[in-house]
Design goal:
With about 120 residues, this protein is an alpha+beta fold. The chain contains two helices and five strands, in the order βββαβαβ. The protein has one domain: RutC-like (60s Ribosomal Protein L30, Chain: A). It has a three-stranded antiparallel sheet. The longest helix is centred in the middle third of the chain and has 19 residues. The radius of gyration is 14 Å and the shape is globular. The relative contact order is 0.16.
């Protein structure tokens, strides 16, 4: 099966050199790796600002989708790892719903980590 890989110009990168890509399309399926609020050199951006980190991570996701010819309307499952409170989770869910759009109803798993 033919595969199409995505690692857009200017996308965040790891601080160590890897052969990994951020996303791959195989037929009608698209798989993405974690998207985080890092700069192209691998530095964490917006420390302590969960809303900005979420917004920027979803922008990275959108760039991958664009690169592979899909969009949020095609999203089936999203796993969001975060550090925060129950109130933070509610705000993140609201922000994700706004970003993804009201017509899309993917499965979303919110996983609160003690630290990342």
């Amino acid at each position: 099966m033919k595969r199409q890989y995505s690692f857009p110009e200017g996308h965040w990168d790891w601080i160590v050199e890897l052969t990994h890509h951020h996303a791959v399309r195989a037929g009608n399926l698209v798989f993405t790796g974690e998207q985080v609020d890092l700069d192209p050199q691998g530095n964490v951006r917006n420390i302590g600002d969960l809303a900005s980190q979420c917004r920027n991570s979803m922008r990275y996701m959108e760039r991958l989708f664009d690169d592979l010819g899909v969009d949020f309307a095609d999203l089936v499952r999203l796993i969001a790892y975060y550090v925060g409170t129950a109130e933070d989770e509610a705000r993140l869910m609201s922000q994700l719903a706004e970003t993804i759009g009201p017509e899309v109803r993917p499965v979303i798993s919110m996983i609160n980590m003690p630290e990342l």
